[in-house]
Amino acid sequence: MNTCKNKSRSLLALAIAASLVACGGSENKAPAFSQSSFAATVSEDESVTGTLSASDPDSNDTLNFTLASAASNGVFELNGNGSYTYTPNGDFFGEDSVTVTVSDGKLSDTATVTFTVTNVNDAPVVGTSQVTVSSQGTTTGSIEITDADGDDITITVITAPQNGQLEINSATGEFEYTPYTLEQIDGSFTIAVTDGVISDPVEAEISLAASFSTNADKLSYYYSSAQSHLKQAEARMENIIDDDLLNEVRAGLAVGYTTAGFASEADANIAAITTLDDQARAYQAVGERLDTLGLTEEGDDKRASSVALFNQYLAEKGISNLSSSDANYFIGLINDYEESGNADAANAMLTSVRIYADAINDDEYSTAYGRLLSASRINVSNQQTAYFESGSDADLDSALTAAGLLEDIAMEVGYRVITRGDYEGQYSYQMRVLYVTWLAEHYMYLNQPEKAKQYLAEALALYGVSGYDANYNVEASEYGAATLSSYSSIVEIQAGLFAYYYPDAETNLALALLEPGTRNYNDAIVFIHMYQVLAAAEKGEDFSDLLASVKTHFEENGDLRDYYEFLVQQGAGSGSGIRTAGLLVNRGHLDAALTVLDEALTVLTDEDYIYSESAKMTLGSYGCAGLSRLYQKAGGDVNGVLNTCLSIAENYYQPEQNIMSDAAIIEGYQALLTLYAEAGNTEVMNALASDMSVIAQSFDSDIDALEFQAYIASVTANYGAFESAVVMSNSVLTGIVSLMKDDEGNTLEALEGYLEVLLWITGSDDYVSSYFKLYTVKTAMRRQAADITEFAALFSQFQTQLHSTLKAINAAVTELSDNEQQDIMALILLANARAGLFAEAEQFAASEVNATADQYELYAQLAVVWAEKDDYPGSKVANVDTDSDGLPNFFLTTATEQEIAESGLVADTDSDNDGIADEQDATPLGEGN
């Protein structure tokens, strides 16, 4: 019953509702904006806010504002209640618009809002804060400057860079920067920019950074930095007030800057030298350096400058005051020209020397003339030796050219007046006969028989002998007897030459000048026999009986040494004093030479000879060393000779035998070790080095023992056993420190001894032994850096111990008395500088114990070491390695790609070893650099 009532009521309600809709009595109305479009104005780079208004007929509806289309040139933020914010894009001006919608949730309306953005002038913006430029040459680039308004800009430089020239295009910002030569690139410059509208120009500071990417960049960066060894040398000059000392430093700097490729700096240093002769010698040194770099034409240009200055120097000095060094200058320059291949210039110099000789020559012999004469003769010997070593036609030509100069000078040598004896008051041409005889001998050595006979005739004529050869009929001197009475020693050479060139003469006219039984007569007989052996070898004849006769002659006089010297070349290749074996080798009679050398080896093993002669004459340069080199030239068994020599050492040169002194044992074994190294017999070399270390322990002097071991280290380093060399060097260095723990180990004498020992480990870059051509351990490693696989680690190990030992020595030196410190000061300073301890070296230079003049000299020594510093001595492609890792900072600009490849060196990419690649490193040479 109740259900029916409820259902009736519902149906009634629905009917009423339908009726109401049909009549329209409750329809929804759309909202509407108060206006169809809105407008607002805003300044550029600012924002504008506002509120949009709209209404809805249906008062009860809630309106909501939304964005229909976004702004094109700004950001329009609209809130639901109609409030908004509009922010135009940066630097935009003009019109922008949005479309907005208002809705009641059912119906909506739209309107456009237009924004007018008014233009406001923008200041120019400098976008560059740093520019990277090269340390050498001109760098071009552009400074980034923008102006939002597109206005024309004007750029001016307010503050220019201190270390270079800057040019900027005032309209575009393009620039050119040229650094001052060798000035470090740092600092900044300031520019002002205006668009013609702003009242105050925009200022910007732009910093300068040096490029460190190309090889040229790295080279220029280094030499422009304070770390450059040349800059360091220049800094030391500030402590020197002495022109002579400064001249020496400037000459070294000139060579250094030439190596680096800064010719103008080299010339400037030479121009600052205060004396003409030192300027000339500096240009000569620069020329020599250019030659080694393969720039011979440039080298010749420097030599031309050198000659002009030296001629001016001699004109002011007076040719009659010519010194020995002056004469040597000319000879050296002639050799330089010949080595550079400039024969015309060499001949011009020869002409100049002849002119000078004529200018100072007088009938009577003068010291100045004698100096030119001596220098010329030494030059002939040197050129002759070079020819004997190489056998080349070019070296023969050089030797003959040198002999030609000696001809001109020797034949004009004046007389000396005899002051006592039977010929008092008469003239003696002793100096002329000496040099003319030497000239004849040189021509014989060079296998120039016509020239040799010509000057033999000239020499004999000075003794009054002539007429024996119609082809060389020289008038006999009226002072022959007087000359012979004052000087007859040279006749022995004449007798030998006469026997060689005139074997069929009934009388040896030179020998006839000497009194039988005298020393000169007996020496002449020896020379005659020497040339008779040569003549027999040339004919292919046996000369064993001749050797036996000579041996008997010497045995009767009890002098095996003279017999040995007759057999072999003295000086082991010096080019002077050539004896039988050397003469045969040089003439190409090798089998005959080996016969003579075998006989010489027999003499060396004779016990009487060993007991009576020094180590130099048995195992050293005049003994086994000279002999083995001649065997090598003759194609003989060098190792067999060395093994014989080793037997001599084992049988006679042992400390426990007490036959030889420690000094003799040292000299003998040093020679043997080096000879085995030269022969490439590393097995015996290493075994011998080990034996020598044991032998050293028995020496009476600790210093001798250490120096003996230091020599071993030098030899092993020079011949490629680098690890062994470092082990031995460090053993020597720790041995020094051990000795210093004893009070007696810190005396002046002991400390000087330690520093002498160190000369084998870290001395100059020149030969520490010129005969064996050995370098110090340090120099040998540096020269062969490309061949050492783990150079950085090995060299660090070596250098760490070296520095530690030197610092211990330094401390001991400071404990000496003032006078003792003064005595050792130069030695300790050089030891530190050459080891790379430059700060310690400078402390010694500045020490208060030094007198002012001594300080100048010490600073000069230090400056010269800095100037001559070379991390790759002997190399023509590199010279700087700041972190001592065996990788050069850069290659010299004169080096070719082929030369670099052949050197085996690889450029460093991290020059200060800090783990940051050079191109990304703000201080690629270390802190502050």
Structure description:
This protein has 929 residues and is of the alpha+beta class. Among the domains are: 32-118, Immunoglobulins (Immunoglobulin-like, Sandwich); 125-211, Sandwich (Immunoglobulin-like); 542-660, no CATH class. Helix content is 53%, strand content 11%. A hairpin with a 4-residue loop joins strand 8 and strand 9. Helix 4 packs antiparallel against helix 5 and helix 12 (430-445) packs across helix 15. It is elongated. It starts with a helix and ends in a 26-residue tail after the last helix. Residues 1-24 form the signal peptide. Residues 904-929 are annotated as: Disordered. It comes from Marisediminitalea aggregata. Pfam families: Big_9 (PF17963).
Q: Assign the structural class, choosing from mainly alpha, mainly beta, alpha/beta, alpha+beta, or little secondary structure.
A: alpha+beta
In one word, what is the shape? elongated
Distance between the termini: 111 Å
**Helix segment tally:** 35
Q: What's the total count of β strands?
A: 20
What is the CA-atom radius of gyration, in angstroms? 46 Å
- Please state the average pLDDT score: 92
- List the uncertain runs: 1-25, 571-576
Strand neighbour order, sheet with most strands: 2-9-8-5
Strand content: 5-15%
Sheet of most strands: 4 strands, mixed
How much helical structure, as a percent, in the residues?
Answer: 40-55%
